[in-house]
Amino acid sequence: MPATTDPDPVGPLLVPVRLSPTGVSVVRLMQTAVGRRTAVAFTTPEQLASVLGPEQLAVRLSLSALRAMLTPLGLAEVVVDPQLTARPVADGSSAAAPDLIRSKVERP
Q: Per its UniProt record, what InterPro entries does this chain match (predicted)?
């Protein structure tokens, strides 16, 4: 298979976020099994919902945009489509900002 020159070969990703108390979207950081901080991203709403639950908020970002956000934090690792995560701690916020995507998949 030839190497790709596309900087984001997987296309737009769904990146889990939480709402701050002031309503600002904040990327959720996770920990790897060995304790390193990392970001996660998903290729489909179904994958996001199956791992983090149907109510998880997300924004669409390219891989390069997500990496650019992580670099100032000293983070480089992004796990795409992780298979196992611990349940999130409830933060009490349930309102979604207009630019957020609910991962719940509704079928007709």
A: SAV_915-like_dom
